[in-house]
Design brief:
Blueprint: E1 2-6, H1 12-27, H2 33-43, H3 46-54, E2 63-68, E3 71-82, E4 85-93, H4 102-116, E5 121-127, H5 134-139, E6 143-149, E7 160-167
Parallel strand pairs: 4-5
Antiparallel strand pairs: 1-2, 2-3, 3-4, 5-7, 6-7
Helix pairs in contact: 1-3
The chain binds coenzyme A (COA).
The site of coenzyme A has 20 residues, from helix 1, strand 4, helix 4 and helix 5.
């Protein structure tokens, strides 16, 4: 049985494993190897994830994890960006465990937390062309809002991220 729970330090390695595998599976056809490695190094290193499972504030509500048979199979988290606006910052399933409804449950947990903080809208940035993410958010009622320059753009990289939002 799969359970969704707030992550603690025992989940750090599992979060790193799922998010790293998720990065490669999601972006290897969209981005350069160097870019993906840079993102993994910055966001999914043990020090950072340990801090992020040890913090739960309005700005960052901490990680939620999906656990199956003691193993992390999905991870996600978000925070408030304004009085009534929540943001999903990260949401990845183990690439072998997509499409089982577990991402929906993780998003529900993040959403419930943000509603407690007063969210009435919820936002997410997705990389343009991410066909493993955008259809999920559309299925959950998110609508296109705008485009903006992606994370860590360098002169030779023209990655675009797309903003989506929904009422919650
Ligand atoms: C996005 C992600 C977290 C969704 O989790 P999941 O467990 O695979 O999704 P679910 O099984 O809960 O799917 C929920 C709905 O989205 C739809 N959906 C999900 N991925 C889809 C896809 N690639 N194409 C079409 N529909 C999709 C499902 O049909 C389902 O619709 P329904 O609720 O109407 O039946 C997961 O697929 C993933 O890790 N993707 C790659 C990483 C990524 O892009 N993350 C988002 C970046 S922030």
């Amino acid at each position: 049985m799969i359970t969704i729970q707030k992550a603690d330090k025992s989940h750090v390695n599992g979060i790193i494993r799922v998010c790293t595998a998720g990065q490669w599976a999601t972006y290897e056809d969209l981005y350069t190897k160097e870019y993906i490695e840079r993102v993994i190094e910055e966001f999914y290193n043990p020090d950072r994830v340990l801090k992020e499972v040890s913090t739960s504030t309005k700005d960052w509500g901490g990680y939620f994890v999906a656990i199956d048979d003691g193993e992390v199979v999905g991870a996600g988290g978000g925070g408030m960006t304004g009085d009534d606006a929540g943001e999903v910052y990260v949401l990845y399933m183990d690439p072998d465990r997509r499409g089982e409804g577990v991402g929906t449950k993780l998003l529900e947990a993040i959403t419930a937390q943000q509603k407690e903080f007063g969210a009435r809208t919820q936002w997410v940035s997705v990389q343009k062309g991410n066909e493993k993410g955008i259809p999920f958010y559309r299925a959950k009622g998110f609508l296109y809002d705008s485009e903006q320059a992606g994370y860590a753009n360098k002169e030779d990289e023209e990655y675009i991220s797309v903003r989506y939002s929904r009422n919650v």
